[in-house]
């Protein structure tokens, strides 16, 4: 099986990386139980105690690796970009600002956010690589009207740019507003460009194709301090818990939005980090205990799934009653013409 | 149970209360589904629909999804009830018959003054075809909708091929449902069909109309049981009728008479049933 192989290969490369990290940082020992890994499902660990934002580089390594991998992803933009009626100002064009790397854009799927935190009267800067969290039950994917956005078995949440109309519903329902729109590209140009859709939504796809080929995501591979790790979900979850315990720190992404495939660990509380962040377009905050908003409709959804049984049972009861009534009537010499 | 001639009221019960409930459950929940389904596309904010006072909810995807689910429960229960209830009772009046397509074309031509209408059974051949068409659309909507619901709650990572299929079946069937709804409305606007409108509200059509246009059905009813004059409990009594509707029906009837070649026996009862007679009936 291809999938099995992919998972195995990836697991192996994961262990190479974590083994290297374990040796380099001395922070943690490698979990030894290889067989316990959940088949095919990955998670990422982002250790904020390790990330320093690459001060010696012009652009953090994870960002430049991501940019290099995705530099030809977006096809040429239509010129002029159709005006989305009746909201002309809704055009979002980043095609002339491809180099921007201090926020999320359609051309930039990861950036390193800086949080100035007060710790015991001392100002400290926390560097936070931000990208899609790849949620366990992502509303951005499940309620995409065209299923252009989908949660893969390997846990990556992937937008198919050939199917996306750029309506930005995914960004609206994402607690972090992650997906970014590029107008003037995509299938909407061939349908009703002025009236329906407005481009394509772009975001991190966890290097889904590289993962499938048994390679690491660009950001994970490039990080010089091994602040980013990827591996089988159970292993990463265990590793995150272990590190949190060791640093007497905090974890983010485990319960947020119903659970995600990205765990941040930090010696500083995420409440404190969030307080120093201001949510802006392309710059997510870090609110803790974010609930999954779609969970509120799950019970109604379960009622929908039960509805066929309810309907059939009611129909059968009604029809049986009618049959027995008719039988009685026939026995009594009366006939029914219903 | 349902179909019965009420000679003294000049009515024929065409639909039982259960059938009326089924119809309106599907119709009203279906309309809510169309609207809330439409708002699953990011249209409400873009087109300022959500800016209209009272329609702010239309721009909130979580709210419209909840509404879509609630309406789905009614829609799906009604659809499954319909199949099992009428299936077990062996009621097949709406199932298409051989030759319905050909007859339908003749009937539609007759609406435009070409040729004459054949005598009908309880349902017109195009009603049977429309029923089958709508049934197919509803089956597609329900099956794909159930897959999408299951995915939303339990399996966001289910096979992409399955999700894409369900999504596009749902989207295309949505468009077809919308078109079918319009065709349905267009059909009842046609004058010859108007006397049937009251049946979907009250359960009954006028006896003269039925004798004139549905002689095959009436023959069956009259053959099966003797015409009853005893007071049954009709769904809505003649008194409750809207005077306006009566006028419309009478006019429609007269038009039908004009369109049908004169001198046919079936046309005679229609002439005798005037609004005056109806009022007299009501006074009784």
What structural class do the secondary elements of chain B suggest? Answer: mainly alpha
- Could you tell me the number of beta strands of chain B? 3
Mean pLDDT across all amino acids of chain A: 88
Tell me, briefly, the overall form of chain A.
globular
The CATH architecture of the largest domain in chain B: Up-down Bundle
What is the multimeric organization of the chains shown? heterodimer
The percentage of residues in β strands of chain A lies in: 5-15%
Q: Can you tell me the CATH class of the largest domain in chain B? A: Mainly Alpha
Determine the fraction of residues in helical runs of chain A and give it as a percent range: 25-40%
Biggest sheet record of chain B: 3 strands, antiparallel
Read across the widest sheet of chain B, the strand sequence of neighbours is: 1-2-3
Please, what is the CATH homologous superfamily of the largest domain in chain B? Transmembrane di-heme cytochromes, Chain C
Q: Fill in the CATH topology of the largest domain in chain B.
A: Fumarate Reductase Cytochrome B subunit
Q: What's the N-to-C terminus distance of chain B?
A: 25 Å
Low-confidence stretches of chain A: 1-38, 334-338
CATH topology category name of chain A: Alpha-Beta Plaits
Radius of gyration of chain A: 25 Å
How would you describe what is shown here?
The complex is a heterodimer of chains A (338) and B (284). Chain A is of the alpha+beta class and 338 residues long. Chain A has helices spanning 2-25, 61-70, 139-142, 169-173, 208-212, 218-222, 233-247, 270-275, 298-331, and strands at 42-47, 111-119, 122-130, 149-151, 157-159, 180-182, 200-202, 228-232, 250-252, 262-266. Chain A has a single domain (2-291), classed as Alpha-Beta Plaits (2-Layer Sandwich), CATH 3.30.70.20. The longest helix of chain A is centred in the last third of the chain and has 34 residues, at 298-331. Chain A is globular and about 100 Å long. By secondary structure, chain B is mainly alpha-helical. In chain B, 62% of the residues lie in helices and 3% in strands. Chain B is built from eleven helices and three strands; from the N terminus they run ββααααααβααααα. Chain B has helices at 17-38, 61-89, 100-111, 125-153, 160-189, 197-202, 207-213, 215-224, 243-259, 267-272, 275-283; strands at residues 4-6, 11-13, 204-206. Chains A and B meet through helix 4 and helix 9 of A and helix 2, helix 4 and helix 5 of B.
